UniProtKB/TrEMBL annotation:
Pfam families found in the cross-reference section: EF-hand_7
The entry's keywords: Calcium
One GO MF term attached to the UniProt entry: calcium ion binding
Organism for this UniProt entry: Podila minutissima
Protein's name in the database: EF-hand domain-containing protein
Length: 92
Protein backbone atom coordinates (compact mmCIF):
# COMPACT_ATOMS: atom_id res chain seq x y z
CA UNK A 1 0.00 0.00 0.00
CA UNK A 2 1.27 3.45 -0.93
CA UNK A 3 2.56 5.49 2.03
CA UNK A 4 0.09 8.32 1.36
CA UNK A 5 -2.78 5.86 1.30
CA UNK A 6 -1.58 4.26 4.52
CA UNK A 7 -1.44 7.71 6.11
CA UNK A 8 -4.91 8.54 4.81
CA UNK A 9 -6.31 5.41 6.41
CA UNK A 10 -4.78 6.33 9.80
CA UNK A 11 -5.92 9.96 9.80
CA UNK A 12 -9.59 9.00 9.94
CA UNK A 13 -11.45 7.07 12.58
CA UNK A 14 -13.02 3.77 11.50
CA UNK A 15 -16.40 5.52 11.43
CA UNK A 16 -15.08 8.29 9.20
CA UNK A 17 -13.47 5.76 6.85
CA UNK A 18 -16.80 3.96 6.57
CA UNK A 19 -18.55 7.27 5.85
CA UNK A 20 -16.04 8.18 3.14
CA UNK A 21 -16.19 4.70 1.59
CA UNK A 22 -20.00 4.85 1.55
CA UNK A 23 -19.84 8.29 -0.07
CA UNK A 24 -17.39 7.01 -2.66
CA UNK A 25 -19.71 4.14 -3.57
CA UNK A 26 -22.64 6.56 -3.82
CA UNK A 27 -20.74 9.00 -6.07
CA UNK A 28 -19.44 6.16 -8.26
CA UNK A 29 -22.72 5.94 -10.14
CA UNK A 30 -21.58 3.45 -12.79
CA UNK A 31 -19.95 1.23 -10.13
CA UNK A 32 -16.61 0.95 -11.94
CA UNK A 33 -14.56 1.62 -8.79
CA UNK A 34 -13.64 5.14 -9.91
CA UNK A 35 -15.16 8.58 -9.67
CA UNK A 36 -14.95 10.36 -13.00
CA UNK A 37 -14.98 14.05 -13.77
CA UNK A 38 -18.57 13.68 -14.97
CA UNK A 39 -19.63 11.99 -11.72
CA UNK A 40 -17.99 14.76 -9.67
CA UNK A 41 -19.68 17.44 -11.77
CA UNK A 42 -23.05 15.72 -11.31
CA UNK A 43 -22.44 15.65 -7.55
CA UNK A 44 -21.64 19.37 -7.55
CA UNK A 45 -24.80 20.10 -9.54
CA UNK A 46 -26.89 18.00 -7.14
CA UNK A 47 -25.65 20.20 -4.30
CA UNK A 48 -27.24 23.19 -6.02
CA UNK A 49 -24.04 24.62 -7.41
CA UNK A 50 -24.00 25.91 -10.96
CA UNK A 51 -21.60 23.91 -13.10
CA UNK A 52 -19.66 26.41 -15.18
CA UNK A 53 -16.61 26.11 -17.41
CA UNK A 54 -14.53 27.31 -14.44
CA UNK A 55 -16.07 24.58 -12.26
CA UNK A 56 -15.23 21.97 -14.87
CA UNK A 57 -11.64 23.20 -15.02
CA UNK A 58 -11.35 23.15 -11.22
CA UNK A 59 -12.70 19.60 -11.04
CA UNK A 60 -10.26 18.51 -13.74
CA UNK A 61 -7.44 20.15 -11.78
CA UNK A 62 -8.43 18.26 -8.62
CA UNK A 63 -8.54 14.96 -10.48
CA UNK A 64 -5.19 15.65 -12.11
CA UNK A 65 -3.66 16.52 -8.73
CA UNK A 66 -4.83 13.35 -6.95
CA UNK A 67 -4.95 10.83 -9.80
CA UNK A 68 -1.73 8.98 -8.97
CA UNK A 69 -2.28 6.17 -11.48
CA UNK A 70 -3.15 8.70 -14.21
CA UNK A 71 -6.33 7.00 -15.40
CA UNK A 72 -8.36 10.24 -15.48
CA UNK A 73 -10.48 9.46 -12.43
CA UNK A 74 -10.20 8.89 -8.68
CA UNK A 75 -10.15 5.42 -7.19
CA UNK A 76 -10.93 4.90 -3.49
CA UNK A 77 -7.35 5.38 -2.32
CA UNK A 78 -6.93 8.58 -4.35
CA UNK A 79 -10.28 9.79 -3.02
CA UNK A 80 -9.16 9.17 0.57
CA UNK A 81 -5.97 11.16 -0.04
CA UNK A 82 -8.13 14.00 -1.39
CA UNK A 83 -10.26 13.84 1.78
CA UNK A 84 -7.12 14.05 3.96
CA UNK A 85 -6.05 17.17 2.07
CA UNK A 86 -9.50 18.74 2.37
CA UNK A 87 -9.45 18.08 6.11
CA UNK A 88 -6.02 19.74 6.39
CA UNK A 89 -7.32 22.80 4.52
CA UNK A 90 -10.30 22.97 6.87
CA UNK A 91 -8.01 22.97 9.89
CA UNK A 92 -5.90 25.89 8.71
Amino acid sequence: MDNKVSNARTVFSPEELTKFKDGFVKYDENKDGRISKEELLKLIGSLGEQVTQATQEQVQSVITSFDTNVDGSLDLDEYLILMVNLRAIGQE
